[in-house]
Design goal:
single chain; 363 residues; alpha+beta; seven-stranded mixed beta sheet; two-stranded parallel ribbon; 8 helices; elongated; disordered N terminus
Length: 363
Amino acid sequence: MTAGEERSGSSVPDEEWERFLQDSMTGVSDAPREPSARARGVAKRLREEQVDAGGWRSYSPARPSRKKGWYIVGLLASAALLIVALAPGRIVGWLSDTNRAEEPIAAETERPTQAPPAESARQPTLDEPFRGSPAARWATGTGGITVPEAKATGWMSRVQVERALKQTRDFLAAANLDPVALQGGHPKKAIALINPHQQDVQDFLKTAFREPGSQNDPLLLFSRFDTTQVRLVGDVVKTRGRITYREGERGALQVASDVTYVYPVVSAEGGSEVVRTIVRREVVLSWDDPSKVITEPGTFSLVSYKVHMTNGGCGASTGYLTPPFATGEAATGAVPEVDPYDRSTSMSEQAASDDECGTATRS
């Protein structure tokens, strides 16, 4: 041990301690006495307090006060309550718009009585191409086409009607949802379901793809885009509509479909502007009794077909849907206004006819 250190808690130096022992043995009267246990305890406590004392350059950060944190929380809560008190309707509107935008709408089983309510004025994006549109709540693909329960009708049994309804929906999908057809390819799957003995329709199909025009336009039956000009955003097409049926001529099963298709697209040249092309089709077809009409198994005859397009082109037919982008075409002059999402009336009752370019009130 170095000089000056203490041993066993005693404050008596070594020299004094040795002299004390000698004096005690020889009987010296004024020999120093050993400190009492109490004195040694007090001395030890004083030394420990000195050792624990912080240095003069040391820094002990103050413990954070919890009062400040609770003050901030309280201030934010008060601000939130004030906003709710001043504009409760707006808060409820925000919440309802969010919930409504995420909630799927029930399937369409009959003609609606009014157009869908207006959505918030939000523009579509590449990540949310259906934002701000009623179609955001619609089903995808064939999921949005309601097929009724099958019952024996005309010359067909219940099982045959069920099969015919399924094949009708398959035709609608092949004509309007099939990726090959949408990208400008020949809709072979859809055409294969059309009665090959229906000569007027077969002549129309041959001319429409070879020399498309106003009277022979493939868009009357099929949705097609020119991929050199237009690119679909993702692979989701929103649909809403229904299929109905009844007994037709010569005991045939007559099936009618009324479906709206919504296609989000962007320019193939690039950019982020999303345009929604909306196509509504009413197609009536007949599953004929082969004993009365010349037909082939698994095919139908076309009775009628109507189409209304929004953002699909307004001009000479090219055989493709041509959405107008920022630098594209726009309808001019006195043209009728049409809500492409309003399915409360049939296409025959709408203001715009097949050969008119109307102005869409929303897309």
